[in-house]
């Protein structure tokens, strides 16, 4: 094909699409436009080793610039798309340039959900999405600083662990009755709450933030029950919102993300989308969802790239996620939302255990704490819709694949 | 700088100079060597940086710790010499290291 393919978005999905398109023989013009000035890079270290200063910035990009040159990709960084004209197949950018496309791939990602309470725009309030955020946060952190983290999900907890490691006094404020309530079983929440507590991080649940107070900068976080927390730094990790404005304004179907089918195609046959910005169908789980994960960005971008080349490949993967907090690793495969039974495997006190989620006898998901063996076995079993015996699963001496 | 050779499943060889301190995985990724995916970026969470270490090098490397061992347990076509390349930091003693890249990653 000698057409022009434009990719909007220079994150994990956009970068992978370049790789797959060229590897699969696309010989036409390829442009990748990203609104960040850095080469496409990996985000997971931003709350961990990059924030702590243990990983140099040069190690964040997926590829050297030469990779894009060698793959004849016109890389335009620090440029934002402002208008998509689907009738003319034209995109206008904030630097005044315009590009025509034959086919378009939108990898717009997601952005941090903003606090809306009074004081939310005070200095000293940090979000964590990109390198710029991480550098600003790192510059604020110093031993003894009081860091109040709003949100007990992955971002909040990983950042809490890093800030604590760097000597801050850390408090995590969580609205629900436990941390990671959206993604983890109570036993896993409890395990990590204990890790944080043992390292001196204070976690306060059932707490809703109603305001931030301060002069030049934030000094205090006020909660609905009347309690207050003194703060030198506030970090907000209350979720992400899909970036869809460009698509929505152009008339593409959007609903908690850009709506795509199982071929990653939007409501416009010439436009595909991949990654955090998409609302996609899951053949495995029989419902639509928006997934925020490195693996989904990678795999969906690969499928989208293949479909840009008319290969008709269905994107059908079992999602997986990971989180590193202090010296524990949480590995999650599958989605537990429709499970009717959870089976604990092993003893949390040993610091290595897992939780199996079943719908009837079908394994839907597994959470593994410091247990890579169960996690890797579950990836295959969940994809195969394996049916297991609950009592045998509950015995950690029996390998998961033998627990039939 | 240590030189590491990566051999694709097709037989194609790539010899790269790898700075001490990064991992065998990162050296491959930086040079765009195909077949090493490294989705999790080196967090020992995905098993897509799987390589087969050449026989003469296996005992020269520190053996896998529990988490790597568990990930390798279900890696695609595990063999003697299978390692996750993100868990192999490049050291001065690795000059001449040879690894093969499996046909598939997971």
Give a written overview of the molecule.
- The complex is a heterodimer of chains A (404) and B (106).
- Chain A has 404 residues and is of the alpha/beta class.
- Chain A folds into three domains: 4-111 and 241-308, FAD/NAD(P)-binding domain (3-Layer(bba) Sandwich); 125-236, FAD/NAD(P)-binding domain (3-Layer(bba) Sandwich), CATH 3.50.50; 327-402, Enolase-like, domain 1, CATH 3.30.390.
- Chain A is 23% helix and 29% strand.
- Chain A has ten helices and 26 strands.
- A five-stranded parallel beta sheet of chain A has the order 3-2-1-7-19.
- In chain A, helix 1 packs parallel to helix 8 (294-308).
- Chain A is globular and about 60 Å long.
- With 106 residues, chain B is α+β, with helices and mostly antiparallel strands.
- Chain B has one domain: Beta-grasp domain (Ubiquitin-like (UB roll)).
- In chain B, 13% of the residues lie in helices and 20% in strands.
- Chain B is built from two helices and five strands.
- Chain B has helices spanning 24-30, 66-72, and strands spanning 3-7, 13-17, 50-53, 82-84, 97-100.
- Chain B has a five-stranded mixed beta sheet.
- In chain B, a hairpin with a 5-residue loop joins strand 1 (3-7) and strand 2 (13-17).
- Chain B is globular, with a radius of gyration of 12 Å.
- Chain B starts with a strand and ends in a 6-residue tail after the last strand.
Mean pLDDT across the residues of chain B is 94
At CATH level 2, the architecture of chain B is Roll
Biggest beta sheet attributes of chain A: 5 strands, parallel
Biggest sheet: strand arrangement of chain B: 2-1-5-3-4
Radius of gyration of chain A: 22 Å
Count of separate DSSP helical elements of chain B: 2
* CATH secondary-structure class of the largest domain in chain A: Alpha Beta
Q: Return residue spans of chain B where pLDDT drops below 50 for at least 5 consecutive residues.
A: none
Hey, which two chains have the biggest interface?
A-B, 28 and 25 residues
Distance between the termini of chain A: 49 Å
């Amino acid at each position: 094909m000698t057409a022009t393919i434009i990719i909007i978005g220079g994150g994990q999905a956009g970068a992978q699409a370049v790789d797959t398109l060229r590897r699969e023989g696309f010989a036409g013009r390829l442009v990748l436009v990203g609104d960040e000035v850095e080469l496409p890079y990996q985000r997971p270290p931003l709350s961990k080793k990059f924030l702590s200063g243990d990983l140099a910035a040069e190690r964040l990009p997926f590829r050297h610039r030469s990779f894009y040159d060698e793959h004849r990709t016109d890389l335009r960084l620090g440029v934002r798309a402002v208008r998509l004209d689907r009738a003319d197949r034209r995109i206008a950018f904030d630097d005044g340039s315009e590009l025509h496309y034959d086919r378009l791939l939108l990898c717009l990602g997601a952005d941090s959900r903003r606090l809306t309470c009074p004081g939310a725009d005070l200095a000293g309030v940090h979000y964590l999405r990109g390198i710029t955020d991480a550098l600003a946060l790192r510059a604020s952190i110093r031993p003894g600083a009081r860091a109040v983290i709003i949100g007990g999900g992955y971002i909040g907890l990983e950042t809490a662990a890093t800030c604590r490691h760097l000597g801050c006094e850390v408090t995590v404020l969580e609205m629900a009755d436990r941390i990671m309530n959206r993604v983890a079983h109570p036993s896993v929440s409890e395990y990590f709450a204990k890790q944080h507590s043992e390292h001196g991080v204070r976690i306060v649940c059932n707490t809703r933030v109603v305001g931030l107070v301060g002069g030049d900068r934030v000094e205090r976080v006020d909660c609905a029950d009347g309690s207050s927390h003194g703060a030198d730094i506030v970090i907000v990790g209350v979720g992400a919102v899909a970036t869809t404005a460009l698509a929505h304004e152009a008339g593409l179907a959007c609903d908690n993300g850009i709506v795509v089918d199982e071929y990653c195609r939007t409501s416009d046959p010439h436009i595909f989308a991949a990654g955090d910005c998409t609302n996609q169908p899951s053949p495995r789980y029989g419902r639509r969802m928006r997934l925020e994960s490195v693996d989904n960005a990678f795999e969906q971008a690969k499928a989208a790239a293949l479909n840009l080349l008319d290969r008709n490949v269905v994107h059908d993967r079992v999602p997986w996620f990971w989180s590193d907090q202090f010296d524990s690793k949480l590995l999650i495969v599958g989605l537990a939302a429709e499970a009717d039974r959870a089976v604990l495997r092993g003893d949390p006190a040993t610091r290595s255990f897992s939780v199996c989620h079943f719908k009837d006898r079908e394994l839907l998901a597994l959470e593994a704490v410091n247990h890579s063996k169960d996690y890797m076995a579950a990836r295959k079993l969940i994809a195969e819709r394996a049916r297991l015996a609950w009592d045998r699963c509950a015995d950690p001496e029996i390998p998961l694949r033998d627990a039939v | 700088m240590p030189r590491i050779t990566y051999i694709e499943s097709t037989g194609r060889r790539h010899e790269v100079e790898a700075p001490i301190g990064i991992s065998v995985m990162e050296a491959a990724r930086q040079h765009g060597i195909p077949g090493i995916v490294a989705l999790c970026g080196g967090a020992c969470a995905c098993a897509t940086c799987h390589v087969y270490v050449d026989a003469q090098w296996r005992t020269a490397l520190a053996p896998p710790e529990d988490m790597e061992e568990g990930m390798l347990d279900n890696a695609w076509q595990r063999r003697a010499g299978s390692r996750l390349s993100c868990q192999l930091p490049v050291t001065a003693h690795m000059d001449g290291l040879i690894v093969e890249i499996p046909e598939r990653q997971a």
